[in-house]
Structures are given as structure tokens and as C-alpha cells.
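Chain and backbone:
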Amino acid sequence: MTSTHQITAGFLPLLDSALLVVAKERGFAAEQDIELTLVRERSWATIRDRLAVSHFDVAHILAPMPIACNLGLTAPAPRMIVPMALGLGGNAVTVSAGLWSKMAECGASPDLDARSSGLALRKVVDNRKGERLRFGVVHPYSGHNYELRYWLAASGIDPDADVEIGILPPPDMADAMTSGLIDGYCAGEPWNTLGVLHSGAHLATVKAAIWKSSPEKVLGVNSRWADGHPEALAALLRALYGASLWSADTRNHEELANLLARPAYVDRPAESLLPALTGLLQIGGGETLSIRDFFVPNAKAATFPWKSHALWFYTQMVRWEHIRHTPEHQQIANDTYRPDIYRNALKALNIAMPAASSKVEGALQVETPVGSSGALTLGPDGFFDGGLFDPADVESYIARQARI
């Protein structure tokens, strides 16, 4: 029997591809009458290109990349929408054992506190007297690049003058560090854990410490396909939401790790995937650390495509001179994320959803019930430096941001 909807999705071998994998392997897609084909790729550029030529209908993709495509920053550039996020958090900044030793001597915190680790790194940079450290990120228009830059800049390190930031595929990061090509990297799991286990690396800090409850991967959708297949897209969002609930259940973590470990998906040992799922990370030197909300697939509106997330990424594109700020550019970024599609697709599930499409990022210091029912809890969502981003005042935020 042929399913009503045939959907092809691209993904990279990362922990946060989990919702697509679970939707296919645990039957959530089939329940929505979807035949879901998953295609593993090696680089984000290939994901983008195959979306552009309609080899893929949708993809597991970097949260800022659809915005960059719509702004014409990358080619070939499909017009894209983001009707759903695929979770919060999941990244870390990993450094070589030698660099961590120097950071520890300069006061880096063993609890991976972003402030103390950043200030320690600044002292190391100062002591090198102009010999720049090299860091890897997965793409110029990635959350990894922007959160690394935010952390460095708030720590008094100029990401362009004091260090070098280059582009590498996630699976190549640890090998590049072992060979001395880079001193550290910002990537998603399991590539930080594998760097610790097999390359003697050490975590310096984590995304959940730089910006709590922050976005990472999203569902990027070719807008031509979305316009022509609204029922298929809505069905896919429902399947992915079901997958997010299953993935968030701690009783399923071992099975989820085993699913992702298969050769067709992440193709790494399940024991290297479990730490990020449980939040009990091996940080280096034989030490482990429990990190709350390291990767969140469902709680805290983790699948909601906040327009304030899109606009924060846009401000970073402006800050690092990837795009000039104009009202038109801001509107393009705002319109890329589509909470209206999310709400319409999931309303039949009777789940608690945010009433607003934006929020002041960094304002929630504790977990906060929202809405009249209190059934939805958001936050904390603070930036490590105490910053606030009000999406209603983008120009002021851009003006306040110095390059360092």
C-alpha cells in the first residue's frame, strides 16, 4: 500500500537528527501516512544545494542557514521556511588538552562556566602575544559560529583579530585538532564526546552555559515544496512532534542511542551518544559532569520556531558583517520562521503552545509557567553575560553590540 505523502529529508550524522530518525524508525511518520526517506549527507553545503535543486523536500539544518539563503548570502540558495525547530542546545566548545591545561592555569572553571572559561581563554590569548589560536566551526551561517563568536566577544576576545575561525565538517573536527590544524572547535554531539574519548580533548564550555534554552537545528523546508504540499508538511510536523515526545522520555534514551548508532545514521557507538542524551558528559581528564538541559528535544517549547530566535541570528549576521542591516533584510529574517504553520499543523493534538511568536531572549532566569493553563514552561533562557535581546527593538540591540 502506498502512503499518501512521500517526503525525502536530508540530514547530517548528529545527535540532533534524532527527531527525523525516530519519526521514521518508530513509526510516527507511518502513523501520519508518510513514507519518509532519509538521506545522510556529509556537509551543510550539500544539504543546502540538494534542497535548492529539490533532491530534498525538507532537511535537518542549521538554524541560521535558511535565513542566510533567503537573504541571498549563499548560493545556490533555495527559498526556505522554518516551520519547526528540532530541539534546544546540544553543542559544546571543545579544546585540545594542551589548551585546556593553559586555560585551567588561568582560572578556567571545572564546571564549564562560560564566564570563567572565557576569561581564562582571554588570558591565554593575551599570553600568546599575537600568535593566534585556531578554532573550527561547521559553517559560517551556523549557530556554532555565532555562539562561539558571542562567547569570545563577551569574554573580550575579538573573533576576527585575536583568533582564527575556519570551517570543517563535524566528523573532521577531532582529527584536525589531533593533527594540530586547530586548537579547538564548536560542534554538535557526538563530536565533542568523541574528541574527549579518542583525542584527549577537554570541553571548555557548552551551549547550555553560553545561552540557556537556545536554538540549534531546525526543519528547513523548500518553500516551493511547502506551498505545493501543505497537507504533507502538516503531517510531517505532527510526526516529528510525536518523535520529540518519545525522544524526551528518559526510558527511551538507550533505544534512541542504539537507533542513532546504526550505520545509516550517526554510525558511532551508542555509548558515545548516551552522554548527551542523559546530560552526563565526559568532559576530559577522566571527569564527568552533569549538565542540565544539555539537549532538549521537547520540553520548554523546544520544537517551536520562535521569530525572536530568527531575529537574534539576524543580528549576529549584521554584527559580524555578513549582511548590512536594513528593514527589508530584517523582515526577510522574521518571515523565514513560521510559527503559524506550526500552530495550524499541531492544533488538533491539543498541546500547549506559546501564544506569542516572539519573546525577550534572556529575560527568564528560572523555569516559568506561561499561558492561562500553566501547562507550558519556558526558560531559563539567559545569556551568560546577562544580555537581553528584545525582538521589538532590533536596531538598538545591533547598535549596542560592539565587535568585542
